[in-house]
């Protein structure tokens, strides 16, 4: 299996197969607009601008499961990300990353890169998953890991 077997809806409602990103290095992140870690959008955008031309995509998945820190609609999220952080990387519709309604992509990510003490549960906003060009999960990063600390790992996969 790989991430290419999953689909997700963009913030504009377009159904996208992740196969569209085949052959690229991916950083998949669950995001939130009203979180103490929200300024990581800036670091994610910087990484995207620096590495997108080399074959890197950052995919943002808003989630409202942690302190209800992503309460807005898709339009609200898109507007916030663009206005405050100039986000130009692909953003998807709000999803659940834990519990019985976990998005299938996140079920896959969590089972292939466990967190602290072997837990599959996502602990908070801005948990990051690094995916190689074959669509396989190679690393999971804690919410507090700043995007710039992941750059070297991304470059090794290029």
UniProtKB/TrEMBL annotation:
Residues 1-158 form the Thioredoxin domain. InterPro entries: Glutathione_peroxidase (IPR000889), GPX_AS (IPR029759), GPX_CS (IPR029760), Thioredoxin-like_sf (IPR036249), Thioredoxin_domain (IPR013766). One of its GO terms (molecular function) is peroxidase activity. Keywords: Oxidoreductase, Peroxidase. SUPFAM superfamilies: Thioredoxin-like (SSF52833). Belongs to the glutathione peroxidase family. This is Glutathione peroxidase.
């Amino acid at each position: 299996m790989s991430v290419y077997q999953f689909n997700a809806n963009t913030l504009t409602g377009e159904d996208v197969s992740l196969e569209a990103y085949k052959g690229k290095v991916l950083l998949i992140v669950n995001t939130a607009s009203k979180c103490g870690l929200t300024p990581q959008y800036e670091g994610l955008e910087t990484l995207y601008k620096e590495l997108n031309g080399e074959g890197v995509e950052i995919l943002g998945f808003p989630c409202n499961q942690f302190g209800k820190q992503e309460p807005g609609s898709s339009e609200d999220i898109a507007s916030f990300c663009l206005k405050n952080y100039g986000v130009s990387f692909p953003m998807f519709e709000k999803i659940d990353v834990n519990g019985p309604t976990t998005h299938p992509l996140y079920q896959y990510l969590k089972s292939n890169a466990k967190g602290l003490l072997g837990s599959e549960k996502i602990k908070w906003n801005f948990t990051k998953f690094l995916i190689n060009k074959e669509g396989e999960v190679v690393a999971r990063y804690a919410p507090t890991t700043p995007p710039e600390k992941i750059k070297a790992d991304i470059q090794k996969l290029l």
